[in-house]
Amino acid sequence: MVSRAPRPTNQVALTIDDGYCAPCVDGYVAFAERSGIPLTFSPNGRFHELWAPHAAALRPLIAAGQIQIGNHTWSHPDMRHLNDTGVRIEIERNDDWIQKTFGITARPYFRPPYGMHDHRIDDLAGSLGYTTILMWNGTLGDATLETPADILGLAERWVRAGAIVLGHANHPTVLGLFDQLDALLAQRNLRPVTLDTMLGTSRAHG
Q1: Which end of the chain has fewer CB atoms at under 10 Å, N or C?
Q2: Residue 20's pLDDT band (boundaries 50, 70, 90)?
Q3: Count of structural domains within the chain
Q4: Does 96 map to a domain?
Q5: Residue 4: inside a domain, yes or no?
Q6: Is there a contact between 149 and 1 (Cβ–Cβ < 8 Å)?
Q7: Which domain holds residue 99?
Q8: Is the CB of residue 185 less than 8 Å from the CB of residue 32?
Q9: 3 within a domain of the structure (yes/no)
């Protein structure tokens, strides 16, 4: 399991989950293209209709190492309530969609919905090649609808050296805050990176 950088660094990993808000997905992809900032998306395949239009734009960014894709399950259930077959289906179905849509593996990073997991789920994910459970040690708090002040306050608190920061492409409030978040990174001399860069993995092999 990983929740932060393994050693002192000025790197920060910005990780964006879910993606059930079309303008949010649009906005995050446009922000990545415009800014060049590395991001790690962990989308749910059930929202494939919102992500598919951006596949052509994301594929070259993935190839360049700016964008990474993680596995966050197909439909975002609490995995603890599924039997072994259900757990495997959720992970494998999303894995198939990621490879078909983005042309790359998400292995070895599996982010369990709600951060809920146990040894059984970890073992099942590991047997499918998802050997690293992806957690976080900072958040923008935007899994639910928040005010701009709330999100910026949490960014001030958690966007720090060595952090893996959790955000969501679910509510449009964040779309008006990209410039402020970019400025915060510059002010703190932080270098945003993908998980591959922070943790030394590769999209060729996971």
Answers
A1: N
A2: very high
A3: 1
A4: yes
A5: no
A6: no
A7: 11-199
A8: no
A9: no
pTM of the model: 0.95
Beta strand segments in the chain, E: 11-18, 39-43, 67-69, 109-110, 132-133, 138-139, 164-168, 191-193
Tens digits of per-residue pLDDT, 2-17?
999 999 999 999 999 9
Residue 64 burial (10 A CB sphere; 0-12, 13-18, 19+)? exposed
Residue 48's CB is within 10 A of a number of other CB atoms, namely 16
> Which two structure tokens, joined as six digits, stand for 186?
């510059």
Amino acid identity, position 103:
G
Q: Which two tokens stand for residue 26?
A: 């649009």
CATH number at residue 34: 3.20.20.370
Q: Does residue 69 form part of some domain?
A: yes
For 34, other C-beta atoms within 10 Å of its C-beta total: 10
Tell me whether strands 67-69 and 109-110 are parallel, antiparallel or unpaired: unpaired
